[in-house]
Amino acid sequence: MSILFSLPDGSPAPRPAYPKPTPPTDVFGATDPGEDVRAVVTVQVAMTRDMLATALDLAAGNCEEHPDTWSVQYIRESVELQLTYENFIQLERSARGYEEWADIDESVKPYIQAVYRAIDRAYPKGR
Predict the structure, then answer these.
(1) Residue 78: which of 98, 108, 58, 48 has the closest Cα?
(2) Which DSSP category does 6 fall into?
(3) The model scores a pTM over 0.90
(4) Three-state SS for 7?
(5) CB 37 within 8 A of CB 31
(6) 42 and 24 in contact (C-beta within 8 Å)?
(7) Fewest CB within a 10 Å sphere: which of 30, 39, 75, 111?
(8) Other CB atoms closer than 10 Å to residue 120's CB: what's the count?
(9) What is the rounded CA–CA span in Å between residue 35 and residue 58?
């Protein structure tokens, strides 16, 4: 996992090639309304399909609608919102076994497959 692209002396470190960033859906407030907001910080995180699916599943939590009915806007907002709460290193660890959960418990397989279809709609490969 690449984290920093600047060396301590300020010189650039090698950068991997990433797809074009998906624009954020909105600004999520880490402040209470009315607080004196100093800055809006934008963080772009390169994520695997498994990481996206894990973030979406965690964010959707108790949503009663089926993932096949979720809009692209809802999917992207959910993933972004989850990243405001979840340490992305922990998310990467959780994602390592996400798809395997369907093999462990057959009853969740259709749901997990639907979450992956939702990710494929919102973040198509090679866009």
Answers:
(1) 58
(2) B
(3) no
(4) coil
(5) yes
(6) yes
(7) 39
(8) 14
(9) 28
